[in-house]
Amino acid sequence: MARSFGEPLTKLRAVPIIDNGEPLVDPRTLSSRVAFAEKHPYFTEMKCTPHVRKSVAEMIARAADSLPEGLTLTIIEGYRPLAQQRWMYEQIKNEFATKHPEWSKATLHRVTNTMSAPPEDRCPPPHTTGGAFDLGLVDTKTNTPLDMISPFPMDSTSAPTERKGLSDEARRNRDLLVKTLTAAGLTNYAGEWWHWSYGDSGWALRVGAPHAIYGALPADTSPGE
């Protein structure tokens, strides 16, 4: 059940977790330049929330306020309950299995794990901690997402942040995203340009922190609206 892009599950599992107890916060309350997509673009039946841990919300707001005029930082999803993580993981695995019936079970698990954290692993899936979120940049005037993927489709082929062969426009937009969020203290999972976090096990591994500061939130956690 290896995880690629420099974050194998063996290393993630070894990261100690000392949860600091921060609550979930809606980052829209901290900046008028943070928006919420309301619906997931691919799992439309799934209920999403923009809520993240307090420090993460503050970083998101700081990043949004530093963007060039005319752009909005739009949250696709923040905190994700474990049951929802489990459902999404199975959806992605089934999609890969349908597209690639020639894959072995080991290959199917490995590739699925690069796109979705395994829900039953002892390393908490990032979104279940409230420290991770998915996002994009949107042109405020036209309400149009900036191009991050051309000439590729929006799937696993365009997902890696440093994907080679991007158009000049897509590369510029990704560079802006990376520069802005990194400056705010957030870190990126290199396998997905849209996935960023702070405080979870992935963050700790990327920055060399002695421990993660967010573990999985209890199953009955409700971010409120």
Automatic annotation (TrEMBL):
<feature type="compositionally biased region" description="Basic and acidic residues">
    <location>
        <begin position="161"/>
        <end position="170"/>
    </location>
</feature>
<keyword id="KW-0645">Protease</keyword>
<dbReference type="GO" id="GO:0046872">
    <property type="term" value="F:metal ion binding"/>
</dbReference>
<dbReference type="GO" id="GO:0006508">
    <property type="term" value="P:proteolysis"/>
</dbReference>
<dbReference type="Pfam" id="PF01427">
    <property type="entry name" value="Peptidase_M15"/>
</dbReference>
<keyword id="KW-0862">Zinc</keyword>
<keyword id="KW-0479">Metal-binding</keyword>
<protein>
    <submittedName>
        <fullName>D-alanyl-D-alanine dipeptidase</fullName>
    </submittedName>
</protein>
<dbReference type="InterPro" id="IPR000755">
    <property type="entry name" value="A_A_dipeptidase"/>
</dbReference>
<keyword id="KW-0961">Cell wall biogenesis/degradation</keyword>
<dbReference type="GO" id="GO:0160237">
    <property type="term" value="F:D-Ala-D-Ala dipeptidase activity"/>
</dbReference>
<keyword id="KW-0224">Dipeptidase</keyword>
<keyword id="KW-0378">Hydrolase</keyword>
<dbReference type="InterPro" id="IPR009045">
    <property type="entry name" value="Zn_M74/Hedgehog-like"/>
</dbReference>
<dbReference type="GO" id="GO:0071555">
    <property type="term" value="P:cell wall organization"/>
</dbReference>
<keyword id="KW-0482">Metalloprotease</keyword>
<dbReference type="GO" id="GO:0008237">
    <property type="term" value="F:metallopeptidase activity"/>
</dbReference>
<feature type="region of interest" description="Disordered">
    <location>
        <begin position="148"/>
        <end position="170"/>
    </location>
</feature>
